[in-house]
Amino acid sequence: MRIRFRWRLRHRGGTAGETGKGAGVAKANGLASLDQLEPGDAGTVVELRACGPLRRRMLDMGLIPGTAVEVLRVAPLGDPMEVRIRGYNLSLRKKEAATIAVWIR
Fold this sequence. Notes:
By secondary structure, this protein is of the alpha+beta class. It has helices at residues 2-12, 52-60, 94-97; strands spanning 31-33, 42-48, 68-74, 81-85, 88-92, 100-104. Helix content is 23%, strand content 30%. It is globular.
């Protein structure tokens, strides 16, 4: 367990205080999951990591690679978050937003 944790820190660029999937990974190189963005941040969808019905639903709503996304608001406790995509506002749970890889503009 300890070896795996150290390997993650070393290879993902995180620190011991960070938690969550992909924490501290890539805001530096411009790639992050949608749940890591702050209100006012914008980006372009790069990849959907969701599977099954959730993936199908997100694709149907227009979350396809190459689509512009802007984070409008985040609820006080962090869940849900509101994003603007293709001219409409969409609310997503943090767990759903974590499956969307975004290139930060």
